[in-house]
Design goal:
Elements: H1 2-28, H2 39-45, E1 47-50, H3 55-68, E2 72-77, E3 82-90, H4 95-104, E4 109-123, E5 127-140, E6 145-150, H5 154-172
Antiparallel strand pairs: 1-5, 2-3, 3-4, 4-5, 5-6
Helix pairs in contact: 1-5, 3-5
Length: 175
C-alpha cells in the first residue's frame, strides 16, 4: 500500500513537473499557442463515471486525492456533492528576473494558485459521475491577479482521475 501510494505520488509529481515545464516553455515560445479545446471537449475530459452508486465513497476519494496533491479543501458539501479546494505555491525568481522587473517597473509574479471545483452526483441507478475543473491564477505581491486561465491539459485530468480511481479501489477494499 505504501509503495503504491509513493509510486503514485512520484508519478503525479513527474507529470506535474512536466506540465509546469511545458507551461513555462509555452510562455516563451514564438509559436502560436495550441488551439483551445471546445466546451464539449473540456467537459468530456473533466468528467468520469464510476461503477458505484455510493456518492459518499466517491466524494471521499476525490477529497483524499486533492489532499494528496497538496490542496486545502475549502468547501465540502456532501448534500449536493460539491468540493472546492485551493493550492498555493510561492513563485521564486532569480536575481536577474527581479532586477529586470525592477528595471521595467513591472510587477513580478509572487503566487501560483490552483483552484479546483468538483461535482459528484448519481448517474443512473448504479453509477456516480465526477466532474472537476481546475483553474490557475498567477498573483503579484499585492495579491492582484496577473493571469488566470482554466487548465486545459487532458493529461493533467487523466492523472487526477487515475489517482481518484486508486482511491476508490482502496476504499472499496477497506484499505
Amino acid at each position: 500500500h505504501f509503495l503504491t501510494m509513493t509510486i503514485s505520488r512520484i508519478e503525479f509529481l513527474r507529470v506535474a513537473t512536466l506540465s509546469s515545464a511545458l507551461l513555462v516553455a509555452g510562455c516563451f515560445s514564438d509559436s502560436p499557442p495550441p488551439p483551445q479545446p471546445s466546451q464539449m471537449e473540456m467537459r468530456s475530459f473533466q468528467t468520469r463515471e464510476y461503477d458505484t452508486n455510493d456518492e459518499k465513497l466517491v466524494l471521499k476519494a476525490v477529497l483524499n486525492t486533492l489532499q494528496d496533491m497538496g490542496f486545502i479543501v475549502t468547501t465540502a458539501d456532501p448534500g449536493i456533492g460539491l468540493l472546492t479546494a485551493t493550492k498555493k505555491v510561492n513563485i521564486s525568481h532569480t536575481k536577474k528576473e527581479v532586477k529586470e522587473a525592477k528595471k521595467r517597473e513591472a510587477p513580478l509574479s509572487q503566487t501560483d494558485v490552483l483552484d479546483c471545483t468538483a461535482n459528484i452526483s448519481e448517474f443512473g441507478k448504479t453509477q456516480c459521475r465526477v466532474r472537476v475543473n481546475f483553474q490557475r491564477q498567477i498573483l503579484d505581491a499585492t495579491g492582484a491577479t496577473m493571469q488566470a486561465s482554466p487548465i486545459t491539459d487532458v493529461k493533467f485530468y487523466q492523472t487526477f482521475f487515475s489517482q481518484v480511481d486508486k482511491g476508490i479501489f482502496l476504499q472499496q477494499e477497506g484499505v
